[in-house]
Amino acid sequence: AKAKGRDTLALYDEELDRVARERRDIETDLREVLARDQLHLHYQPVIDLDSGEVAGYEALLRWYHPKRGIVTPDDFLEVAEETGMIVPIGEWVIRQALAETGQWEGNFRIAINLSPTQVRSPHLADVVAQAIHAHGIAPHRVEFEITEHVLMQNSDLCEGNLAKLRELGTKVALDDFGIGYSSLSYLRRFPFDRIKIDKDFVEGIEASADNQAIVSSITRLADALGMAATAEGVETRAQLDLLRKLGCQEAQGYLICQPVPGENFATPAAVQAAM
Ligand code: C2E
Ligand code: CA
Ligand code: CA
Ligand code: CA
Which ligand 1 atom lies nearest to the CA of residue 198? Predict the structure, then answer.
């Protein structure tokens, strides 16, 4: 039994080594990511459930890694946050999303995710102001998505930045709503324009009366607070129909469209034709 315990420990050590090495590799490669032009944005449409029209697109970051292939944010955002590299990366995201949006026909919204460190960065509002000006995007078309982790920091810089974003005329959405531990209290701290209902509540909604009750409560709460509600992670027609019935205004998910690289932009007309 002792030998077995030792083997398990050895395996555990190896695993720790592997994770640490992996992290170091990501960190090293990430330092070069901007200089090497390896970042790209993919765009996923969001549709209005009443009209079926495209209401906007969410920009989702992708790292085209020469060896690993297309890496999604879950595999590098944490390292980017911890090292502060998220600030220049996030500024690139803002500029790139607005530059690409400026080239496309239509008045749809463009949603951009912001991480906690970005919202504490002193230049955030300047970068946004410059980019909307440079690309001629009406500020009200730009919406920033933040999770409650941003507000948990409770910092003046963060509150100040959010206030500045509102002064610029851009919108702010509360992302991943419902899965945190005190989402409700954050609704009181900041006047969000939108709540994004986490995909956890959309998944299995057909079979779960509880999830249906939660989604319909969130949409009514949003409505009462003068906010819109968007459901994310919609993968089936049944989910889409239910969300509409429960009063949710907008939806996003693989059923409607996968996130698509800017080069192959899925135009509103193409998205609607495919629905
Ligand atoms: P999120 O903001 O909650 O974005 C939604 C995630 O769900 C995206 O994952 C999207 O690809 C995925 N998704 C969309 N439709 C479906 C569906 O029908 N089913 C399922 N299972 N998933 C779906 P992704 O692109 O891997 O991004 C993960 C997270 O990384 C995002 O979660 C967001 O928090 C963060 N992120 C993405 N881009 C950026 C960025 O530019 N800056 C920052 N700071 N964070 C970003
Ligand atoms: Ca988001
Ligand atoms: Ca989300
Ligand atoms: Ca998420």
Answer: 3
